[in-house]
Amino acid sequence: MALHFERAEFASRLTRLTDQMRAEKLDAILLFAQESMYWLTGYDTFGYCFFQTLVVKADGTMSLITRSADLRQARHTSILEDIHIWVDRVNADPTLDLRNLLVDMDLLGGRIGVEYDTHGMTGRIARLLDAQLSTFGQIVDVSYLVSRLRLVKSPAEVVYVERAAALADDALDAAVELTKPGADEADILAAMQGAVFSGGGDYPANEYIIGSGADALLCRYKAGRRKLDANDQLTLEWAGTYAHYHAAMMRTIVIGEPTHRHRELYNACLENLQAIETVLKPGHTFGDVFDMHAKIMDERGLARHRLNACGYSLGARFSPSWMEHQMFHVGNPQPIEPNMSLFVHMIIADSDTGTAMTLGQTYLTTADAPRTLSRHSLDFIGA
Asked: Which residue of 9, 116, 137, 337 has the fewest C-beta atoms within 10 A of its own C-beta?
């Protein structure tokens, strides 16, 4: 089987999950998030674009219900043994198959948790599921139960996060080598992604962000490529990915002579990131990180040009996003603990002057100061 972790690691994760389920008095949980299934069993697929769910009982029993196309996928990539297939057909309602499975698993009348807040749960599936289970038992939204368990990485996971970070560094090297006046964004993007693949990495859970000129102020991917001018700006956000674990980075490269505004915004980004490192450790919360970000940006008169979040937790994720649920935004009470992999980004988009500046990297938290996972410095990058 194509397992990325030892069976003892999976057994430990299942114990942590069932302990938490008993604490919340859950008889079972229905996992719809692909990353939850991957973390718990190794199951690796993009078949979550269709209906599938992993049923986990409080006694540790697990049963997967999925389509026939994923039967061999589950057998080959996971520790799962009990796999049920719902049949593709006109007007199919696989939630009926799920209800019948829950009856067979002696869960009628039980307290059942459901992962609703995930890309594997469409609105249609949620409506069908609620209709089937409305009189079946007590249904509870536990969208963040496994997500919280995944925040702290095991030693085995840290190895993959570090490998992903090395691949992210390789991608930056590839980008810097090609970035110059007249360079094509397409070539830069291909070199970055190629560096990750050549290093044994994977597709990222979302597209890389690349934009120059006016598009450098964007912080989402969009279709279309251009060539760099003699004086230009290029914003890149990407992630090294290994065994689905991500380590993200972000930079704005200035081509030609930097403007005074470029330097000013870079200094704000650097000061902010260095200040955040003083609170990115146990004893502080995710909200504290954002408060530091907002304080420095606002004191520099950049309130209109900053975002309302400055990073998030990273881990093993599947399309369409490499972001985990926990973000650095105002009021987030999530405590920072050792062995979290956290991406901190400074994004300034000054639409008044058309100036972009970004700076971001992934950290591994420790008992004290965070450890940056990049071999690159935070120096200004020009071309």
From this structure: 337
pLDDT tens figures, 251-270? 999 999 999 999 999 999 99
Distances (CA, A) of 366 to 1, 245, 309: 33, 19, 22
Domain range for 355 is 152-372
Cα separation, 124 vs 263, in Å, equals 49
Structurally, the chain folds into a number of domains equal to 2
- CB 365, CB 339: distance < 8 Å: yes
For the stretch 319-377, pLDDT in tens is 999 999 999 999 999 999 999 999 999 999 999 999 999 999 999 999 999 999 999 99
| pTM reported for the whole predicted model | 0.95
Helix axes 260-276, 286-299, angle to 10 degrees: 150
Query: In DSSP terms, which residues pair with 212 in a beta bridge?
Result: 234
> Are 340 and 199 members of one domain?
yes
User: Residue 57 maps to which CATH number?
Assistant: 3.40.350.10
Looking up residue 335, the CATH number of its domain turns out to be: 3.90.230.10
